[in-house]
Amino acid sequence: MAFVDDLMAPVLDHADERHLLGVRRLRNGEQILVADGAGAWRHCVIDGGGVVAVSDIIIEPPSTPSVTIAFAPIKGDRSEWAVAKLTELGVDRIIALGTLRAAVRWDETAAAKALARWERVAREAAAQARRPRLPEISRCQTLDELCGDPTVAMAIPGGAQLLPEHTVVCIGPEGGWSDEERALDLPAVGLGDQVLRTETAAVSAGVILTALRGGTVAPVEHERGAQR
Predict the structure, then answer these.
(1) Are residues 74 and 54 in the same domain?
(2) What residues make up the domain containing 190?
């Protein structure tokens, strides 16, 4: 799949043209999918170094409920790995979460560059997964900014069962949540018996939330009732 600005008159950008024609060596007549990143897509064929539409535009409605993973950025390329996997899973929004014990602290310039990289990674992952709707990559936010939303939960080892109503899960830094952050009025949810690295926890939360949304798994009713 490739992303284009205008599905009515699709034109490949230079990066996609180089990848599809130079790396994958697609030839005239070979078919690809093009999408607008907002859920609409159509079939095209390679023609003379460009693409020509050969089908109507199909619009896929957004999945409901919307699923969000907020995680503290990590050193190296592990944040980008998490963004790619969350995109493949179908997570709708990815937030760079500012935390008190973060190992990575961005100023305004660094944040803009990092989030631009996240957007490029998400675009490449969506193309690979044939996902026509790109996830929203949100600016840095803190737990304080997310408090007050009943859909938001924070992941803590030993936390309660993750329920379908918790559609926004916050993943802390590898140094753990601070006492101030733990004291915020947010439900604590667990992602397993082990202590997970930040990127593993982010992807685990994405797997659970998208599986709950898709009906692949269901909450354990007797445990759910016991928590209320």
Answers:
(1) no
(2) 68-226
Q: Where does residue 36 rank: exposed (0-12), middle (13-18), buried (19+ CB within 10 A)?
A: buried
How far is residue 30 CA from its own chain's centroid?
Answer: 30
- Strand (E) or helix (H) holding 164: none
Regarding whether 204 and 105 lie in a shared domain, the answer is: yes
- 48 shares its domain with 101: no
The 3-state DSSP class for residue 133 equals: strand
The DSSP call for residue 184 is S
User: Measured in Å, how far apart are the chain's first and last C-alpha atoms?
Assistant: 45
- Total domain count for the chain? 2
Residue among 84, 65, 166, 176 nearest 123 (CA): 84
What global pTM score does this model have?
Answer: 0.91
pLDDT tens per residue, range 1-48 = 999 999 999 999 888 888 888 878 888 988 999 999 999 999 999 998
DSSP string, 45-92: EEETTEEEE-S--EEPPPPSS--EEEE---STTHHHHHHHHHHHHT-S
CATH of the domain at 45: 2.40.240.20
Q: Parallel, antiparallel, or unpaired: how do β-strands 93-98 and 152-160 relate?
A: unpaired
